[in-house]
Amino acid sequence: MWLQQRLKGLPGLLSSSWARRVLIGLLVFLIFYWYLGSGGRWTFLSGSAMPGGAAGQCLQAEIHRWSSIVERGEGVYSSPEEQLDMPFVSGNGHILIDVDTNRLWVSSSSQPGSAPVHQTDYFPIIGVHLEEERAVVRANMLWFRKGAVLLVRCTSTAAVQSARDCVSIREEFIAHRSRPNVFLQRIHVSNPSDRAATLDISSVSSAHRSKFSSSLENLGNREVELSSGRVQVENNRMVLVVVVTKKLNSRIQVPAKSEFLENILSVVWTSEPIESSKLEETFSTLRDGAKKEMEELLRTEVNDLVLDHQKAWMDLFISGELDNKVLQV
Q: Cα 198 to chain center, whole Å?
């Protein structure tokens, strides 16, 4: 009875202009409260706003995995729906990988901030692409707390009609904090469809590395790619760069309803600025050192490497030194 009497009085209450203004103000407040509480994302519109059809819907689900990280202030991301104008890079004081442009930057010293940073002509990220892909959408996340850049791509072919059948390619890029010469690219491919998926694995060809030359070599029972190049610096001197990278097959089959996991290790050695007369001797020293370190890494569990990196990164948070060191290369 009490509720019935109150509802009977509602039309009269709303007839007051003051009451209507209060009600409208309350509704506006609730809308903004909900908007800010959800991290500034209009989730009820995102399904229609995300481009790429089925692949776009798949990407929306992938991004949802990052929502708790972003809400805690531990990362930021950029997607087709929400563009973020900032560099997505991973660095450790000696090397820096620009994920957006696939460029390697190096310092001639492993001590952060003690030497200039140089952009090389080397492309450190190995390409992973679905064969016969029709639509591809991607998003990046910079994960502050783990010191890594995450990249996710959702791909579909002409045969895919549903987001549930799209292939997702998740990658993580780490410039190792306590091993300054080490770069790690982690790959996780998920194929939920009823058909096998073929992946093309490729690096940028040596024709596009104007100052780098590459060759294949064997380290034990593993094949690696050894690349050598140089960066011209002041006073007609040069910084030499040698990169040793674990080699993968150029084509990989991922069976229906299965996962594919791979870790690509790279070792980057650089010299101090040298004169041209020391070119061959310095290259020989760098190649020997890089191959020796790669042999050691190939005997190490990758998960142990990742945990070691994350612990070293967390120590920066605990010590309060992150702001000064995170972007020093």
A: 22
Per-residue pLDDT for 25 more than 70? no
Question: What's the number of domains the chain is made of?
Answer: 2
Tokens of 148: 């890594």
312 and 265 fall within a common domain: yes
326 part of a folded domain: no
Question: Quick one: tokens of 82?
Answer: 């929400």
Identify the helix (H) or strand (E) that includes residue 312: helix 302-319
Q: Alpha carbon of 182 to those of 45, 49, 213: distances in Å?
A: 42, 39, 20
Do 184 and 264 form a contact (C-beta atoms < 8 A)?
yes
* 221-240 residue pLDDT tens: 899 999 999 999 988 899 99
Cβ atoms of 125 and 97 within 8 Å: the answer is yes
Q: In this predicted structure, what is the pLDDT of residue 202?
A: 87
Spell out the residues 6+ positions from residue 107 whose beta carbon is closer than 8 angstroms to its own.
93, 94, 95, 114, 115, 116, 117, 118, 270, 329
pLDDT digits (tens, 9 = 90+) for 102-113: 999 999 865 655
Query: Which of 144-158, 172-186, 211-225 has the highest mean predicted lDDT (pLDDT)?
Result: 172-186
CB burial class (10 A; 0-12, 13-18, 19+) of residue 86? exposed
Band the pLDDT of 17: cuts 50, 70, 90. Answer: low
- Rounded Cα gap, residues 266 and 242, in angstroms: 10
My answer on whether 20 and 153 are in the same domain is: no
The two tokens of residue 248 are: 């993968």
* Residue given tokens 């060191």 in the structure block: 325
The confidence score (pLDDT) of residue 30 equals 43
Look up residue 104 and give its two tokens.
Answer: 């390697």
Q: Is residue 6 part of a domain?
A: yes
Do residue 300 and residue 158 come from a single domain?
Answer: yes
State which residues form the domain around 101.
54-321
Tell me: do 209 and 243 sit in the same domain: yes
Token pair 């309350």 in the structure block, residue: 26
Place of tokens 């009875």: 1
Q: How confident is the prediction for the chain on average, in pLDDT?
A: 81
Higher pLDDT, 247 or 316: 247
